Amino acid sequence: MPSSDPIDDPLISTFGRLLEAYTRLERQLGTAMQAEAGIPHAWFETLLRLARSKDGQLTMSALADQVALTTSGTTRLVDRIAAAGYIERRPCPADRRVSYAAITEAGREVLDRAAIPHARNLRVAFAAFSDADADALDDLLDRLRKTAPDSPRADTEPVTQRRHLAAPSRH
Prior knowledge:
Blueprint: H1 10-37, H2 41-51, E1 57-59, H3 60-67, H4 71-83, E2 87-91, E3 99-103, H5 105-125, H6 131-147
Antiparallel strand pairs: 1-3, 2-3
Helix pairs in contact: 1-5, 2-5, 3-4
């Protein structure tokens, strides 16, 4: 008989495993990033988001959404990266209330240097995964990302129950 205790919901356990995996990888890869490239992993992710964006820049709010920080947390992060010369702030020509964070040439250089050992370390971390496993993980994460709202909205009621979720096959 299934437990009626809400903390026994299988999705709570699934999400907990996701958090544990992320935390362990972040600790391992972040330590390696700092040691091998001389920058924190959060800087790498920020520079990567900017480098992959149109014109190498994002608004502060768009950057905050992508790096999963509050706008004020992103502002502090950008300030630290800008002090190192890897990001610059640019005003928006159409709206003076908006500012952009933009990657600098020095930021692109440190990003390119850091990407090499980071990719190597990721290959080690994911060595137990086949190409098919990695593709399946990408697909699942993309689906999860699409179902999660970009930011909480007041006009959306919270989901309190799931209607149906097939049990994942374990092999």
